[in-house]
Design goal:
The chain is elongated and about 85 Å long. Helix 3 packs antiparallel against helix 4 (106-141). The mean pLDDT is 82. With 143 residues, the protein is mostly helical. Helices cover 65% and strands 0% of the residues. It has helices spanning 32-45, 50-58, 70-103, 106-141.
Length: 143
């Protein structure tokens, strides 16, 4: 064989090794009261693993508390649903106006459009009330 041909090396496969693997392990024992306190702090932090939480606390990284309020989640989901309904009303409004112009005479269409306009004004008033309630909610929640 010539020197130009090198034998084929097979890779061992798997995940590439870390440059600085965490191989040192410590063990901590808690009493029941201490463990309950630890778990409550861990749940408030929002960190995914207990090991990361302990490392962050030992080395003085900031302790973040993430609180979720069920009422806020419910409010935003209902507000999102309302937004979807308003969009569908707008689509139906456009279709109705087009249908009125094509199906009825000008006089009858204008009469029906007047009634539709009054209902639209009422819907607009309700929309302004919803926006005011959103602003009040925001001001109360973000204090």
């Amino acid at each position: 064989m010539s020197d130009n041909k090198k034998p084929y090396k097979r890779g061992k496969g798997g995940r590439p090794p870390k440059s600085d693997p965490a191989i040192n392990c410590l063990m901590v024992r808690f009493t029941d009261a201490e463990y309950a306190r630890f778990l409550s702090m861990f749940e408030q932090s929002g960190v995914r693993s207990k090991a990361r939480f302990i490392l962050a606390r030992i080395f003085g990284e900031p302790f973040k508390v993430v609180k979720t309020d069920a009422s806020v989640i419910e409010f935003t989901s209902k507000l999102t649903a309302l937004h979807g309904q308003i969009r569908s009303v707008g689509i139906n409004y456009n279709q109705t106006v087009k249908w009125l112009h094509t199906s009825f005479g000008e006089k009858k269409a204008l009469t029906l459009l007047y009634k539709l306009e009054q209902q639209t004004i009422e819907l607009s008033r309700i929309g302004r009330e919803v926006l005011q309630l959103c602003e009040k909610f925001k001001a109360g929640f973000l204090r």
